[in-house]
């Protein structure tokens, strides 16, 4: 690695997908691509057919890595970032292969979560898609099609709204339906019914009252679409009738015709039908009228994210907003008490900001606290008694845009322990979490407990709160519009953990403002 900040604005990126390994060299100050290429490696055939990555495939990955590394060296790239798509983790031997590749090439692979990939894709579209602001004033759905999954992300009024991942990628559909193809004559109809059955849940969860007039298609599995993008352009627009014609052509054409007409390999040709059928059913179901086909991919979003996190480039939006909106969506889905959630979240962030010298945490930890405060009570949808335990497993099973698997686990753990159960011994049940991360969880749990206690009555009595750090205690001075004895009593029980974590007592003083 190494190199100065000046040199590090030129970085190399590698993304392992199901059908190819894509690389780029990018100037993060300008987000200009210096070099980009791809090495076809059919790793997805192993994922979905064999459930493991075979030795020959590992050799092919090493060869691709070596070739890419030579290109990076030729350009003098000081920093290399290597990612693998979510489908990588579906292989039973993924961790073994990850270690083998590190031993053989020196490159450590980071596996992205579904929510991280969705986050990268939205960043790519929001920064690099020229018509983004104008298009998304109307209801717009972004559909990213990879071999194993489809991510559907909605926008309206120029703002991110909702994201959902479906295990419905063309290669996965093809593998599942391959037996059917040999045994039925109406293969297209059976595949359509299968796709429709998987789309039902997504449609049910869509926000009501929004028409998705526009659709943006992107992803690694859009070969037939990308081959109709004119040379020198990065996207093309088509209307509904134009897409209907393409659908009719594909469903009636032979594989040889498709291969010749659209310059496809045999592997790409076999995925044309499930890809086009999937998109067609989405276009019909959502009644989209304008369809944009973009050659943007997850690696573009990874570049944008690296530029932002490295301080090289300011974006025209706050990426954390998507994460908070995603958490709000989850809270809304499970019908949390919004007034209590807002009050708890506000106080939790106030405590975080006022006690920075005490806890020593940064912006990312503040975001995790904000997310945890937003979703801490979703378990009440299942049962109010021990709701914290239900919140824990719901969060772990949900997608929160932009958080990696470790961060989701941390948020789930914080919510589990925002109740009066002391987490000290229970935290040892998370062996994959480092001591440093356990300490972060403990600190954020302690802050969230205090914030939750200050609205114990669920009546938002406290209108103002002053936080003062004394030599032996943290003093909370509240101005309230009603008696706060219940809050004081609750804090006395739940605040004990705060004292254990930070080594200071906790006192709540209050006076009525009426």
TL;DR of this structure?
The chain is of the alpha/beta class and 514 residues long.
Structural notes for this entry:
The chain is an alpha/beta fold and 514 residues long. The chain contains 22 helices and 14 strands. The protein has helices at 43-50, 55-75, 94-105, 114-128, 132-135, 170-183, 187-205, 223-226, 240-252, 255-262, 266-270, 272-286, 298-309, 319-333, 338-354, 356-359, 363-375, 387-396, 405-416, 435-453, 485-494, 496-502; strands at residues 10-16, 20-27, 32-40, 79-84, 110-111, 140-145, 150-156, 159-166, 214-218, 235-239, 290-294, 462-469, 473-480, 505-512. The strands form 3 sheets. The protein has a 6-stranded mixed sheet with strand order 8-7-6-9-11-10, with helices on both faces. A hairpin with a 4-residue loop joins strand 2 and strand 3. The relative contact order is 0.09.
What is the terminal separation in angstroms? Answer: 62 Å
- Strand percent estimate: 15-25%
Structural class call reads alpha/beta
Instruction: Estimate the global geometry from the Cα principal axes.
Output: globular
Number of helices: 22
User: What is the alpha-carbon Rg in Å?
Assistant: 25 Å
Give the beta-strand count: 14
Low-confidence stretches: 1-6
The overall pLDDT average reads: 84
Q: Tell me the strand order in the biggest sheet.
A: 8-7-6-9-11-10
The percentage helix is 40-55%
Largest sheet: 6 strands, mixed
